[in-house]
Input
Amino acid sequence: MTNATSRIRTLTRLTVTNRVSAVYLALVGGAMAVAAAQPLFATGPDASLIWVWPALFTFPAFGFVAWLGEAGWGGEAPTWFLIGGIVLSALVQSLALGAVWQTLRGRRGDRARLTTAN
Output
């Protein structure tokens, strides 16, 4: 049980609590908040196009979600599926960013510890 808890903590730390992932999630969350609030301030035929921005911020992973929506609903995927896909895509990409950040920091930290005596 301790090993599973340790893995969950590591995944959570990589996904949410490092600087790079936190900035990315704040960017996607901000875009989603603006997109959700936009119908309160504007009405027009292009009002729903604001949801393109959160999808673009999560694009590489969201491309798979869009493909599933096209395959499953023929391009008429329900809103809950698309919003859930944006959230899931953001979390997957945040995990990837956190892993890359941790790897780069680890390499930089290893170089800092080397001395001429080594």
About this structure: Residues 79-113 form the longest helix (35 residues). The mean pLDDT is 84. The helical segments are 2-17, 19-41, 52-57, 59-73, 79-113. DSSP finds five helices and no strands in the chain.
